[in-house]
């Protein structure tokens, strides 16, 4: 039998030969560890380069992007315990395990060992490629082909609007606005993501914002809210104005691909579509 027992800092475990007469026999108590699926988007938290929590959207609207993508670095912190499994291929750029960078060989050696097998249960292949995204306009995640598995862990709420839409990477239909960006030559995804982070935190706290490079090779911006998409539409209009006025973000065109409308009566749906071309 093998396993581990975890205690908080300062906790103590002691044994006594004396038998207390105040306690009744509770019977046999069994603890069953919960094994977490690698492709469950709720199991991951995005981090910035300095390893601080990424605050743009703690659990992204784009569920597939919550799962470590082929260009991502995965960090398993020191002083932590976990059990992770996957029957699908796991392919990422880098893995840091207990403070040490892993190669494909060293990672496989660990999770195949007696102690490592208590924390990792991989029946599919694993590959640490060291291939980080070197495209400043962003890179597609590459995991939407596993949408069925990813979305099996997601519970969707009923949309509160007419013309709800489902962006690439999302398991659920949402209310709000989906923007497609036409990129200028010097567009940088990192700078644009910082703009959206400030936009969501400081100006539209009730609006969730997510962005990604799609597999069709364009950048999408998804803005949603819990009030039928009205606040998200206002935020989208404001964002388009910002991108028109501030040429430093190098966005040439902002096109509305999807936009939800007010909940319709008698099953009728309303919606709109528009595009704005930015002057260069």
UniProtKB/TrEMBL annotation:
GO biological process, one term: receptor-mediated endocytosis
Coiled coil (residue ranges): none
UniProt entry tagged with the keyword Translocase: no
Subcellular location: Cell membrane
Lineage: superkingdom: Eukaryota
Gene Ontology CC annotations of this record: apical plasma membrane; endocytic vesicle
PANTHER family: AMNIONLESS, PROTEIN AMNIONLESS
Name the record gives this protein: Protein amnionless
Organism of derivation: Stylophora pistillata (Smooth cauliflower coral)
Gene (name only): AMN
């Amino acid at each position: 039998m093998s396993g581990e027992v975890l205690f908080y800092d300062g906790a103590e475990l002691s044994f006594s030969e004396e038998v207390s007469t105040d306690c009744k026999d509770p019977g046999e108590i069994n603890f069953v560890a919960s094994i977490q699926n690698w492709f469950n988007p709720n199991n991951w938290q995005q981090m910035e380069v300095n390893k601080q929590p990424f605050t743009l959207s703690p659990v992204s609207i784009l569920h597939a992007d919550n799962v470590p993508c082929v260009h991502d670095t995965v960090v398993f912190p020191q002083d932590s315990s976990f059990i992770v499994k996957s029957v699908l291929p796991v392919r990422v750029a880098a893995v840091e395990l207990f403070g040490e960078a892993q190669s494909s060989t060293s990672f496989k050696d660990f999770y195949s060992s007696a102690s490592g097998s208590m924390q990792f249960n991989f029946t599919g292949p694993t590959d640490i490629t060291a291939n980080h995204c070197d495209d400043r306009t962003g890179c597609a995640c590459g995991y939407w082909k596993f949408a069925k598995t990813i979305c099996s862990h997601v519970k969707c709420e009923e949309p509160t609007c007419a013309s709800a839409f489902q962006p690439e990477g999302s398991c659920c239909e949402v209310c709000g606005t989906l923007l497609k960006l036409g990129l200028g030559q010097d567009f940088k995804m990192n700078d644009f993501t910082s703009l959206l982070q400030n936009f969501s935190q400081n100006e539209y706290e009730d609006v969730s914002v997510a962005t990604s490079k799609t597999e069709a090779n364009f950048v999408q911006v998804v803005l949603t809210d819990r009030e039928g998409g009205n606040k998200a539409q206002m935020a989208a209009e404001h964002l388009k104005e910002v991108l028109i006025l501030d040429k430093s973000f190098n966005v040439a065109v902002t096109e509305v691909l999807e936009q939800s409308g007010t909940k319709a009566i008698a099953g009728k749906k309303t919606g709109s579509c528009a595009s704005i071309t930015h002057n260069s």
